[in-house]
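Attaching the record inline, Q. Sequence:
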Amino acid sequence: ALEVDIPYVALEMLTSAAQDRVFYRVDGPPGTFITGYQNLPSIARREGQAVAFENASFRGEPIRVAVLARSASTGIRSVPFVVTVAETTMAREQLTRTILIRSALRILFMIIGAAVIVWIAVTLSLRPLYRFSEAIAERSPDDLHPIGERVPNEVQGLVDTVNSFMVRLESALNALRHFTGNASHQLRTPLAIVRTQLALADRADDLATAKTAVRKADEAVAGAEHILAQLLLMAKIDAAGRSAAFRKLDLTDLVRGLTGDHVPGAADRGIDLGFEGEGVTQVNVEPLLIGELVKNLIVNAILHAGSGTEVTVRIERSGETARLEVEDNGPGIPPEKRATVLERFGRLGRGDASGTGLGLPIVEEIARLHGAALSLHDGSGGTGLKVRIDFPLAG
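Structure, as predicted:
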């Protein structure tokens, strides 16, 4: 028979856990209980496994069970035995909770420390941006000069973009102020004429004088109306730059029709207005704006060519472009003055107040919107003016 003698030292080790209890059981050959707690549950072992571990329950308490299988030799034969040791898990669970709490506290302190470091770093990094923001907020609405605040390299591109935008905005506002000032001046003149002529009509001694004054006032009103129409057209061109609806059409057919519409008016001024052009020239254009372009060119030529002159509107293909030309044999424009007439309200100073100074600038804006190139040349005979616009042909 197999006997077990457990030393007192081993028993003290089994009872060393203050909060837990330890149970043991020793079994001999299969079906033979030797010593310990007979009701202590045993656990199955896999083939060839010396030690097995498992969680179980004993006397209503959770336990951790370990099973060790060995053999004792009697000199004649080998006697197998199994030792089962179990311990309640109170100390184990408390240790687990202690480790978790301490780990959580360490992680919490690390997170708080990292958050403080990140907050300090972000605050220091964003300080130049705060100064940049304050510099913009403290500026007056009219101050559009570039901002000179030093910022980190990572946001230098943003500052450069803002400065570039402010430069463009200042240029646009200056152009708008200049345009508004010129527009008010142009409108002030016909309105002053209207008031003067109406005052003369009111004080006139005879009907003929009153009629003459009223007629001149009406002409001044018509001039103011024309200026307003041109200003509205300029605004329309600016708006069309963002939402223009282009479509393909035959430029030859369009220009031929518009030229025919102005023949009677040109004849009344003693001007021979004609059209030259055959074939189809398809271009992508905004129909209303391109109509305004052609009308402005024809009206401009009729106003300035003079009685007894010829004005020719011509359409022809030139390589990959459709070329529109409006040519007259009038006084023309000196080469050194041609840049002036392309500026808004630019005039030659000949004393002719019939124009607004907006005709050719409007034409150039519409041409640019359509990707066309405008140029001014001498007339075919060396006299007069030829306005040429090259439109890209539609694909």
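DSSP finds eight helices and twelve strands in the chain. The mean pLDDT is 83.

More tomorrow.
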